[in-house]
Amino acid sequence: MENEGKTMTGEESLRIITEMINKTKVNISQSSFHLLFWGWLIFAISLSEYLLYKFTNFTSPYYIWFFVIPGIFVSVIYGFVNGRKARVQTYADWLYMWTWIGFLIAAIVLFIIHSKRLDTFATYILLLSGFPTFISGFIIKFRPLIAGGICFWIIALIVNFAGSSLAPLGMPVAVLFGYLVPGYLLRNKVGHGTI
Amino acid sequence: MARFKELDPILHSQLRLAIISLLAGIEAAEFTYLQEQTGATAGNLSIQITKLKEAGYIKVIKKFRKNYPLTLCSITSLGQKKFIEYAQALQDYLEPEKPE
Residue ranges of the alpha helices (H) in chain A? Predict the structure, then answer.
């Protein structure tokens, strides 16, 4: 790019501004990893919980949810390592990251509050999960993720009224449509680097 | 053309305008990222970054990552204000005269 010594027209100025602003859209290279990682982890845990509940004599199958803890470490380490490698940090990247950190804190608080009534925990965690998913969809301007957030809310309602036989299936179905489908669609877009 | 001369001379330069436009939408960017996006030479980019820094439009932080020097640039609130003013002045210039 040239600099001084040449008169720049208004149209040229506008072209430069537009071109440069378009280069700084949200970086989505990390987003698909987290969606797929959490999608598969929660899918496996929730489905295993359902199968243990249905076909074994385990009295507390929800203990399997403690596998979430190593998942948090994997996610944080991956985010930290890749964040350090990133040569640019957009405001949207920050917003995206803090939305999910806020969700994690809220989920821990919800777990503490609800630890004595884990039978109805699924409804509330689904309700809470919809929010960061929905907001993230808007941050990265990706409609399947917005729809994924709405899916969580619809399934939260269904789980609440479905009764104990169907309710445990709510979580695997929700992460399938809320995380995994948008995650794979997003991964296909990562080749472009940005949305 | 009279109003065009009112455009901020610090920003009315291809490379400086490109740098400020890039930084306007992000928290911070590395020198190499700016070089890659603008296609400028390291020397030219360095000169223009210094001019923007001296004008108070951007902030430059120098640190090390794995023993390698790292230059991080970010826009200041003055830089944001001047960029918005420049864009508004540009809009006025490009808009056709409205009949009275």
Answer: 10-22, 31-55, 68-85, 91-114, 121-139, 143-162, 170-175, 181-190
